[in-house]
Automatic annotation (TrEMBL), chain A:
<dbReference type="InterPro" id="IPR029063">
    <property type="entry name" value="SAM-dependent_MTases_sf"/>
</dbReference>
<protein>
    <recommendedName>
        <fullName>Methyltransferase domain-containing protein</fullName>
    </recommendedName>
</protein>
<feature type="region of interest" description="Disordered">
    <location>
        <begin position="1"/>
        <end position="51"/>
    </location>
</feature>
<feature type="compositionally biased region" description="Polar residues">
    <location>
        <begin position="40"/>
        <end position="51"/>
    </location>
</feature>
<feature type="compositionally biased region" description="Basic and acidic residues">
    <location>
        <begin position="1"/>
        <end position="25"/>
    </location>
</feature>
From TrEMBL, chain B:
<protein>
    <submittedName>
        <fullName>Glycosyltransferase involved in cell wall bisynthesis</fullName>
    </submittedName>
</protein>
<keyword id="KW-0808">Transferase</keyword>
<dbReference type="Pfam" id="PF00534">
    <property type="entry name" value="Glycos_transf_1"/>
</dbReference>
<dbReference type="GO" id="GO:0016757">
    <property type="term" value="F:glycosyltransferase activity"/>
</dbReference>
<feature type="domain" description="Glycosyl transferase family 1">
    <location>
        <begin position="177"/>
        <end position="338"/>
    </location>
</feature>
<dbReference type="InterPro" id="IPR001296">
    <property type="entry name" value="Glyco_trans_1"/>
</dbReference>
Amino acid sequence: MNRLPQEKPLEVVRNEIRADAESARLRAPPRPARKPPQATSNTAPAAATQSRYSISELSHAPFPGFLEHAFQALLRRPPDPAGFDAQARLLAQGRSKIEVLGNLRWSPEGREIGVRVPWLLPRYLLAKCLRIPVLGYLLEWVVCLGGLPRIVQHQRAADIYHSVRLQEVLSAFRGLQAELAAARGDIARLDTDQQRLGVRLDDLNDRTSQLQAEIARVGADAHELRHLVLSMNHWLASLRKNLSALELAEADQARQADTLDADIAARMMALDTARPDRLGGWAGQVASLLPAGARVLDLCSGDDWLACLVGNGIEAIGIDTNTEVGARARAAGLSMAVAEPSEVLARTADRSLHGLTALDTGALLCEMPANSLLVAIRRVLLPGGLVVLGCGREPAGITARLRGRADVQLNAELIRQALLAAGFVDVRTLVASDGAVCLAARIGSLPE
Amino acid sequence: MRAAILIPVLTSKDAVGADALAMASILEDMGIETRVFCQSASGVERKTYPANQLPQFAGGPRDLVIYHFSTGWPAAIELLGRCRGYRIVKYHNITPPEFFSDISADYETACRNGRQEIASIATLGCELYLGASAYNLGELQKAGMPADRGGVLAPFHRVDEMAEAEGDVALIKQLTDGSRNFLMVGRVAPNKGHLALVDAFDAYVRGYSATARLIILGKIDPRLDRYTAAITGRIEALDLADRVLWIDAASEAQLKAAYLASHVFMLLSEHEGFCVPLIESMAVGTPIVAHASSAVPETLGDAGLIWEERDPWLYAASAARLFEDDALRAGMLERARLRYRQQFAIEVLRERFIGFLEPAL
């Protein structure tokens, strides 16, 4: 995902904008000559359609409906707060509806719309004349005096109208009384319903209280459970820590034991003065039986045997169970891993080795049965591959013997027969300068 | 307990009407019987009642009255004086009349009358005065309102409705033609600074040689046609007529489309009591460049680029910087979204409103 660059501090941005504004002002092209304003523009609001109203149509409604209707009819829009307020103030001051209608009709906006209202103009002008000081007052007197018969006529008509309206109002009032009585009955019923609902509401409140108490109890249990889980976590953490400490101590002890075993083996090998010649002789014979650069796996025969094999041009990899022996071999530039021989054999690929050596066969047989060992050797060797098995007590197996696992005197003939029985062929005895022997055999097909 | 909302003229689309209607809904949700009283109403589904009936409905000592003060209306002072319960004045501010000199005598008179009423309202002894901004509250305090009776509550708005509405796809398609879109939302009135906006837009077109469009979205008032004519005159004199798109009386779908398709919301208004379009821009995610006048700085906060100066080149350069600087734009938009969520979201305003009502409940 692309990330935006860091936003600059606002004050820096503002200063850069100021600089950019000055730059833009300087680089802007000179303004073209101004055109005279044109009458046509896409801004003009749509013109209202023409219409016609009589004065009575516009003035019959009472306030405030009168004003709303007048705005809609004469200006084609609802009243705005300022306009409404201005005209409402005039009405409140006792001005006539005619004057308000005239104000709207002959406002710039009203003129533009041009709604026709016959006889409004003379009456509007008259209304305006009545506002002239002194003269207007006298004029109003004359107008009122002249209109007196008509006013009396209106008064009589109004009397009749109001009488009729009064009868209608009385009739409506009686109807309302009847409705009121019915409504009172409804209210009484509603009161009853309300009381019933109140009882149910109380029941619901009780049930809600019970549920709330239950929720509180469950909440307390959950809290306790949480406390227990936290305690368990703490306990498990302590246990894990203690186990780690024990494992560390055990590993330390094992390392000390391996160091002791390796030292004992080294001392024993130092006492065996014939060992270098013996191993050198065997290694030369083994090398003569293998192709150049052959891959050979050695099981627990010691780092000096491994060095002899490598010295004779063999690509040898050793296995030992002692970590100290392994470390010393690696320090000497040899390839040696620390592992159990049975596990290494199980993980080695089929037909991947030219040879396999194990000078301390007795110690090896204490770890795995002879038949399993021989079957495993057959599996990992290439066709024609060579196996070399020692038949004496070699110092490399001393550590195992110190642990009481390999104090076995091997019979060379027994091993020869075992090899033959397992399908190995060309079994030969390799004799060292001190007379010690080991057996070498090649892989062959199993007897029918 | 009963509650009454008092407002001179109720319309659903203006900011004051939306605020009043939202308060009525919240009070009803709280189980309080509520009515709206006004002189006149248009475009509103809700039933309204004549203002003079208010004392009969909610004039008792346990009742609540909320007056939305945004224009002169002497009757309101008289009505509030007759109520015995908890009285709240929500002050939305009144444009100074000087803006309307030589443009509309009606507006000038209405605004002058309204501002003359500020002192009467402030000293009426109402239990609580709410300003749509601290700027508004300051005007009331200056006029004599006791400092311990004041609070700030931004107006309820219809941003959520706009966000949920479907945008006008045809308009979005028309606007997404590669041009940089400059947007201004607000009624076409002389305090809104349209002339300065046109100058800033002209500076951008000339200074940055870019394809750009100015969208002026707002109701055109025929009674302010001199002002409208002055704007169109300036546009034509600067040879910008084919780069300016006017959208009069926009629908919610058009408003949403304009915000979505615009690259910058530019406000050079000279007087605002709050300015709802700023929070609409914050919510929708349109970067903002604004002039620091009246209540604009406190509404905008750190959610946009704001300048004390009126130099048009500064606004042009700000827009150009926002178009090019991805990190700056992303930072601005993130701060805007955060500010909207924390300060102006409906849930936040509702909590604050209910908090202010607590002494009356």
